[in-house]
Specification:
The complex is a heterotrimer of chains A (about 325), B (about 425) and C (about 325).
Chain A: E1 4-16, E2 22-34, E3 38-42, H1 49-55, E4 64-73, E5 76-77, H2 83-89, E6 95-98, H3 112-123, H4 129-142, H5 159-170, E7 177-181, H6 189-204, E8 210-214, H7 218-224, E9 227-232, E10 235-241, H8 242-247, H9 252-257, E11 311-313, E12 317-319, H10 325-335
Parallel strand pairs in A: 3-8, 3-9, 6-7, 7-8
Antiparallel strand pairs in A: 1-2, 1-4, 4-5, 9-10, 10-12, 11-12
Helix pairs in contact in A: 3-4, 5-6
Chain B: H1 2-10, H2 12-34, E1 52-55, H3 57-62, E2 66-67, H4 73-81, H5 84-96, H6 109-119, H7 131-148, E3 153-158, E4 165-171, E5 175-176, E6 185-188, H8 199-235, H9 237-252, H10 255-266, H11 273-282, H12 286-300, H13 303-310, H14 315-351, H15 364-373, H16 376-379, H17 386-410
Antiparallel strand pairs in B: 1-6, 2-5, 3-4
Chain C: H1 2-32, H2 37-46, H3 53-66, H4 72-84, H5 99-135, H6 137-152, H7 155-169, H8 189-226, H9 229-236, H10 241-277, H11 283-292, H12 296-324, H13 326-333
The chains are: A alpha/beta (about 325), B mainly alpha (about 425), C mainly alpha (about 325).
Bound molecules: adenosine-5'-triphosphate (ATP) and magnesium ion (MG).
Adenosine-5'-triphosphate binds near residues 17, 48, 50 and 283 of chain A.
Chain lengths: ~325, ~425, ~325
């Protein structure tokens, strides 16, 4: 077992809407990412993937609020830190983020180099512009980006180039963990490939030590990540190694998502997560029992009654269901 | 649809705006049922009667009389009969005959009259007083004696043939009549305007006409804007270029200039309320066209539209069922704004003297124009202009609130 | 700089095109309408001796100057030539003054009143709107309904209200005119002071109206920008909040500048009517006089001048915008 780079224990965060209602979009989430590993997060739209990504940064601003739990980055617990200390010594330097909508992630009225200057000086105000330029240039070259991008405005960059620029900016300060929220979803196929290749390079070159990767594209998830976590209504419902989670899911929700995939050897080209009938519960008033019960094909009366704990299988696999592994396999076999 | 409506009616901005607007509309429709008078009928001889209840003096003589012993009635009566200029004249005289100024209190009419009575002597010769001034004091004295008299009034009627007067009754100081029993009384809550017309009745009618103008102008502008926007956005290419060129032209060329030119050329006699509305509509479609076009362009390549194209639906069908429903909210919002700007445009035109011809119907702009020409605002006749301004503000304010509400429902980013 | 030059030439070409179209409309629209004032002039001319000979002479003079009994296209070129020379003929209603004379007396009043007022209103309104978006809470809750209400008031309404409060009741400022009616325009101190005092009410009524509209626009722009993805991303890169706020307001300002270019026409229209309320000796009152006196030459020239003013203002704003938005130079360069 490698060194744990990111550890999250029972993290809960909520949105407070403008009507004062609480939306618990991340509910008691625990996870661990080891050095050299990448964790993928899958789940329907609205299940809280992006919120989890934001929550992991340890830096909260309205409408998102921290409730409980802890975040440990490379052995350093950041939960008790003052926000401005987090901003200065964690964000960008320890943990970095690539937003879902990277297309608009760059301030349109600044040149790329000015954005980088602002980022670097936010952590080290004494840094000279000349040095920042050298740093940026070196960073861009290392990632295979042309240096003249630095002198451009974001509007002048193509979508793929913009996305790669965002990644380059995110890692300019050498963070240990990179969280990428659907970094390729809005791109054409070629750009997608380049972005993925770039992320992989980051891992392979050791420029980042661990990565969390969120996407809707199952093949990507399977190809890029070593572990996969499935979220439903703010909770983790299944977590394990990539291969077993995709080809041998245990939780009925994960099973439903991966429904159409049968043969691992055929590859996963073009396969998308399947739709499951019904809608996820309202996170303002989540049901008390299993949150998936309403839509579960294999629902039991007890499911809705009490909260469901996490079951661990093997050394690294967990799922959230009242049925045991054996019972679940039985149920699936009968269903076929 | 139902869900959307629910959401809309949960937006406080929209609800407030809607409530104000509906209240106005209801009032406009109910008022004529209660007061069916012609809005432009001249009922008052003279200008700017202040708001109040007007009771026929003739009829009140004939109605049942009641005796009320009210303590402060005489003070009020005297106070209302002695004008401020009379009081000033009294003070002048008192000062001349040597009453210390500190003892003269202009607010206490009764005491003032007593001081007059004790001090006034028509034969006294005061130095420095001209003959004219003396005569003025004499006249003042006579009129004050009348005010102070507690004799009551004798009513007499004249025999048509002999011309002899016979006493028919007396009106004592303690006689009162019940307003409800008087055959003719007229409530003028907002008084009369410069022509002697009932302002409230006129205002209600003007509100209705102005709303109609706004509605027609808005409808025309929205239809033109929608059509051009749809054509430019959906068909694109050359057509888009041409339409956008025209739209951009009319965005920068000030529309009120066109409005002025057209209205002036049409000539006063031809300009009815509808004509004005049409002209306003034809000069204010640009914003709608722009908004619709950009919406349509973003919709044009969505999956559902492409699907519809692939299944061979006609352009009309695609526009009606795949495009319009998605831009409906924008179109409605644009329409609401057009109504309000149409009403304002009419008002501006009328103040320039280019409003609808003045003979058939009043509009808010025309009323404002009359009030301005007759200087109601400088003369302090607030009832002749302030209700109009308030009315215009309420209409546009409520429409805009509704619009803001809709905007918040359909563009969630603006919510907080 | 090459990028900017292209932008400039582009805008200049557009300015000329709009100017030409504005000019054409000014010429054609009245001639297309059922009550065609030009035809009226021709008919007045033909009526002969029965009219008072003075009036007849004015019509005659106008018809000759503008060739109103010639074919339309000939008229157009004559019109073009006359306008280029600044010759708009005689004013019907203020004969023997020429139209150019009447206009040159009023145009500066309007320019000196409206442009400063619109700029001040724009600046103050944007500041308030940005603050409302940033501070939220009480400030926003008070400012916004107020702004919405004010911006829904027509400019003449604001004019009347200010006049009644500060002119009629408090008597702080005069209620009408551009200077004391007993003064002769000179550079004397007394006259200057009178002008300044008369300037206040019209000026502030235009400013207030502009503030309302701009504050609302800037607030939504700022809120939109505050929610933009780059704000969130910048935060997670560790950039300080006050720096991000600078980005936001700068970016929100830019559309407000283009917005001003687009709305300056409407604002000028409203302000002209406000001028009338104060009998301010500017173009608003000139327009009113022209309408009242059925003075077509004066009206036509006045609307042309207003169009020219608005288009020029529009052009100027676009040019300034090109300097301020860094993207313009970059985007036009390739
Ligand atoms: N600003 C907010 N205020 C209140 N609730 C919010 C806010 N943003 C998101 N939510 C709610 O939180 C839940 C999780 O949203 P989140 O964006 O994390 O989903 P997601 O899994 O990333 O979806 P997607 O796949 O579409 O990106 C959703 O139910 C959403 O309605
Ligand atoms: Mg997301």
């Amino acid at each position: 077992m490698g060194k744990v780079i990111l550890e999250v224990n029972e993290l809960t965060t909520k949105y407070i809407t403008r009507f004062g209602e609480d939306v618990y979009a991340v509910d008691h989430v625990s996870l661990k990412v080891e050095e050299g590993k990448s964790l993928g997060i899958a789940g329907e739209s609205g299940c809280g993937k992006s919120t989890l990504a934001l929550s992991l940064m340890g830096y909260y601003f309205p409408p998102l609020h921290y409730t409980s739990g802890e975040i440990i980055i490379d052995g350093h617990n950041i939960t008790g830190m003052k926000p401005d200390d987090v901003r200065k010594s964690i964000l960008g330097t320890e943990i970095a983020y690539i937003p879902q909508a990277a297309m608009n992630a760059l301030n349109p009225t600044q040149k790329v180099i000015n954005i980088i200057e602002d980022v670097v000086q936010a952590h080290d105000p004494s840094k000279k512009k000349k040095d920042i330029y050298d740093l940026a240039r070196a960073g861009f070259e290392k990632l295979g980006l042309p240096a003249d991008v630095l002198q451009r405005y974001p509007v002048e960059l193509s979508g793929g180039m913009k996305q790669r620029t965002v990644i380059a900016i995110s890692v300019i300060l050498g963070p240990k963990v990179l969280i990428a929220d659907e970094p390729s979803s809005a791109l054409d196929v070629t750009s997608q490939k380049m972005v993925i290749k770039m992320l992989r390079n980051l891992m392979d070159n050791g420029m980042i030590k661990a990565m969390i990767f969120i996407t809707h594209e199952l093949p990507l998830l399977y190809n890029v990540t070593t572990d996969i976590m499935v979220m439903y209504a703010g909770q983790i419902v299944e977590k394990g190694a990539a291969k077993e989670t995709v080809f041998d899911p245990l939780h009925p929700y994960a099973k439903g998502l991966m429904g159409s995939i049968i043969v691992p050897e055929a590859g996963l080209r073009g396969v998308k997560l399947t739709a499951i009938p019904g809608v996820p519960p309202n996170l303002k008033k989540p049901p008390s029992g299993c949150r998936f019960a309403e839509r579960c094909k294999y629902v039991h009366p007890e499911c809705k009654a009490s909260s469901v704990g996490v079951t661990t299988v093997g050394d690294n696999r967990t799922y959230r269901c009242i049925l045991s592994e054996k019972e679940l396999r039985e149920v699936y076999k009968n269903a076929n | 649809m139902k869900h959307t409506l629910q959401q809309i009616f949960r937006s406080p901005n929209f609800v407030i705006g809607f409530a104000i607007f509906m209240a106005l509309i209801l009032f406009v429709f109910i008022y004529p049922l209660v007061v069916p008078d012609a809005p432009l009928a001249i009922i008052a001889q003279g200008t700017f009667f202040p708001p109040g209840t007007y009771v026929s003096v003739y009829d009140s003589l004939g109605s049942t009389q009641y005796t009320l012993n009210l303590q402060n009635a005489s003070a009020a009566r005297i106070g209302s009969k002695v004008s401020d200029t009379d009081k000033a004249a009294i003070k002048d005289y008192l000062v001349l005959v040597g009453v210390p100024e500190g003892q003269i209190d202009l607010t206490d009419t009764q005491k003032l009259l007593e001081q007059w009575k004790t001090n006034y002597d028509p034969n006294k010769n005061i130095s420095g007083v001209t003959n004219a001034k003396r005569n003025q004091f004499i006249r003042l004295n006579t009129s004050l004696q009348n005010a102070n008299s507690d004799q009551g009034i004798v009513l007499a009627s004249q025999d048509p043939t002999s011309g002899a007067l016979t006493q028919t009754g007396t009106v004592k100081l303690t006689d009162y009549v019940d307003i409800n029993q008087i055959a003719s009384a007229k409530v003028l809550p907002l008084g009369t305007d410069n022509f002697g017309r009932d302002v409230l009745t006129e205002l209600v009618s003007a509100t209705k006409v102005s709303l109609q103008i706004g509605f027609v102008a808005g409808l025309i502008a929205t239809l033109i804007g929608l059509t051009l926007g749809l054509l430019a956005g959906y068909i694109g290419g050359m057509l888009d270029d041409i339409i956008m060129f025209i739209t951009n032209l009319f965005t920068v060329i000030p529309s009120f200039v066109l409005l002025i030119l057209i209205s002036f050329s049409i000539g006063q006699d031809q300009r009815g309320a509808v004509t004005i509305a049409v002209v306003i509509g034809f000069t204010s479609w640009v914003w709608t066209a722009r908004a619709v076009r950009s919406q349509v362009i973003s919709l044009r390549n969505r999956d559902h539209v492409n699907l519809s194209k692939l299944s061979g639906h006609s352009i009309v069908h695609i526009i009606l069922s795949d495009i319009l429903p998605y831009i409906a909210s924008y179109v409605v919002m644009a329409f609401i704004l057009q109504i309000s700007s149409g009403i304002l445009a009419e008002a501006g035109l009328s103040i320039l003297g280019l409003g609808p011809r003045t003979t058939d119907v009043p509009t808010l702009g025309l009323m404002m124009n009359w009030a301005m020409i007759y200087q109601a605002h400088i003369l302090g006749k607030w009832w002749a202009y302030f209700p109009i301004l308030l009315d215009i503000a309420l209409i546009t304010f409520s429409l805009n609130l509704m619009n803001t509400g809709l905007d918040q429902v359909f563009n969630p980013a603006l919510r907080d | 700089m090459k990028g900017y030059r292209r932008y400039f030439l582009n805008k200049l070409a557009w300015f000329l095109v709009t100017l030409i179209v504005g000019f054409l409309l000014n010429f054609i629209l009245p001639r297309m309408m059922p009550g065609d004032p030009v035809a009226l002039i021709v008919s007045h001319m033909a009526q002969g001796q029965s009219n008072a000979s003075g009036v007849q002479a004015i019509y005659q003079q106008y018809a000759e100057l503008f060739g109103t009994n010639q074919p339309m296209y000939v008229q157009f070129f004559i019109y073009l030539k006359n306008v280029a020379r600044g010759d708009f003929g005689f004013s019907f209603s203020q004969y023997p003054r020429s139209v150019a004379d009447v206009l040159s007396a009023s145009i500066w009043w309007t320019i000196c009143l409206q442009f400063p007022a619109i700029i001040v209103g724009w600046l103050v309104g944007n500041t308030l709107g940005a603050l409302a978006a940033y501070l939220k809470g009480g400030f926003d809750k008070v400012l916004m309904p107020l702004s919405i209400f004010i911006s829904n008031l027509p400019a003449f309404g604001m004019a009347v209200i200010l006049m009644v409060i500060f002119g009629v009741n408090l008597k702080w400022f005069p209620t009408s005119g551009g200077y004391g009616f007993d003064l002769i325009p000179t550079l004397s101190l007394q006259f200057m002071w009178s002008v300044i005092v008369h300037y206040q009410l019209p000026f502030w009524s235009i400013v207030l109206i502009a503030i309302g509209g701009q504050a609302i626009g800037m607030r939504s722009m700022s809120i939109y920008e505050l929610n933009a993805d780059y704000v969130k991303y910048s935060r997670f890169l560790g950039i300080k909040d006050n720096k991000i706020v600078m980005y936001v307001f700068r970016n929100a300002m830019l559309p407000q500048i283009t917005g001003l270019a687009l709305s300056v026409g409407t604002m000028v229209g409203g302000a002209l009517v406000a001028e009338i309320v104060f009998s301010y000796p500017g173009l608003g009152s000139t327009l009113l006089n022209a309408v009242m006196g059925q003075d077509y030459p004066l009206l036509s020239a006045a609307t042309l001048i207003v169009t020219l003013m608005v288009l020029t203002a529009n052009f100027a704003i676009e040019i300034i915008y090109g300097f301020i938005d860094p993207r313009i130079k970059a985007a036009q360069a390739d």
